[in-house]
């Protein structure tokens, strides 16, 4: 069965009591995944983008700017998908075109391993348009499964296949550009990236080694951590909450906060909103991924939010980095 278009009747997959298809004007159709209590995830078909992730108390865990611009502009916040490039180069738009296109609901996806912990999920698909092929002359299928676990965990699994018929490989960079909602950026620390090498985008991508026992924030940060571990923790002292970020198939991790000067220069970002957000992004930036025709790549992002207290430089009692 062919993938549905964004404005066609929702497929059978969406008949579950844990899913809802919501039509909205201006290209804002979305799918809502529901879990226990008030746990939910919202996904906009424009960009295939998660724009809300709430825990079982109904608390929003992702940051979305109050000045976010509606389609056809990319949406500031949530989890934009950066493909086929992260950053700006060549004739492609910044962070690629996947976050600026309408995705379709995929009613006949290839099977993924059965996971009994998944409460609800939706499969999306993106294929290049004629205009996309003019900018980036490669045929592909990008399948994205967004899943909500029984305990409120969120996962995004991307599968990209080279469908070129002329024998050509293609290369791309990629990121899950995840915006976390935090109480106060000056009270947040990131653990798991200590001793890692990183490229500092504020210093001409010069390479350094992280020296601190954790990453803390006192000014603008824009770094690409190389060969980053599969698990990173974001500790929010004021909220007594720790985000645990896990990744597969993505070697790097981008850490970004624009701070005050850059925030004021961005049209779609509130002047003081930098205080309440932090991007930690599983990515493939330093070394592009290359696929030959018929080859498929898979990359996964897993997110959970757990209660935590902070004591003497260690998570207590949940040592989530080593659990």
UniProtKB/TrEMBL annotation:
It catalyses: alpha-D-glucose 6-phosphate = beta-D-glucose 6-phosphate. It comes from the Eukaryota. Keywords: Isomerase. The active site is at 177, 281. The gene is LOC123154745. GO terms for cellular component: cytoplasm. This is glucose-6-phosphate 1-epimerase. Belongs to the glucose-6-phosphate 1-epimerase family. Its EC number is 5.1.3.15. Substrate binds at residues 76, 94, 99. It is an enzyme of class 5 (isomerase). One of its GO terms (molecular function) is glucose-6-phosphate 1-epimerase activity. CDD domains: D-hex-6-P-epi_like. GO terms for biological process: carbohydrate metabolic process.
């Amino acid at each position: 069965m062919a993938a549905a278009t964004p404005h066609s009747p929702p497929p059978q997959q969406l008949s579950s009591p844990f899913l809802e298809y919501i039509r909205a004007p201006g290209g804002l159709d979305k799918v809502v995944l529901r879990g226990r209590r008030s746990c939910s995830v919202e996904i906009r078909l424009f960009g295939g983008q998660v724009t809300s992730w709430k825990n079982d108390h109904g608390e929003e865990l992702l940051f979305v700017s109050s000045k976010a611009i509606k389609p056809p502009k990319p949406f500031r916040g949530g989890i934009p998908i950066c493909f086929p490039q992260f950053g700006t180069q060549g004739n492609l738009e910044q962070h690629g075109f996947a976050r600026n296109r309408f995705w379709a609901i995929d009613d006949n996806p290839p099977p993924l391993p059965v996971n009994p912990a998944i409460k609800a999920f939706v499969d999306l698909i993106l294929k290049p348009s004629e205009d996309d092929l003019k900018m980036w002359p490669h045929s592909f299928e990008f399948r994205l499964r967004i899943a909500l676990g029984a305990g409120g965990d969120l996962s995004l699994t991307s599968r990209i296949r080279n469908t070129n018929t002329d024998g050509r490989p293609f290369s791309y960079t990629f990121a899950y550009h995840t915006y976390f909602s935090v109480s106060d950026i000056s009270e947040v620390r990131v653990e798991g990236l200590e001793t890692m090498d990183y490229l500092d985008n504020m210093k001409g991508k010069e390479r350094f080694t992280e020296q601190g026992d954790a990453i803390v924030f006192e000014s603008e940060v824009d770094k690409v951590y190389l060969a980053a571990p599969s698990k990173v923790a974001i500790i929010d002292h004021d909220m007594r909450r720790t985000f645990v970020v896990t990744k597969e198939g993505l070697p790097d991790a981008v850490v970004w906060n624009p701070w005050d000067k850059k925030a004021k220069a961005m049209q779609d970002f509130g002047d003081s909103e930098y205080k309440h957000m932090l991007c930690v992004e599983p990515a493939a930036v330093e070394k592009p991924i290359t696929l030959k025709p018929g080859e498929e790549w898979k990359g996964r992002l897993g997110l959970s939010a757990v209660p935590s207290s902070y004591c003497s430089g260690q998570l207590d009692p949940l040592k989530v980095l080593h659990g």
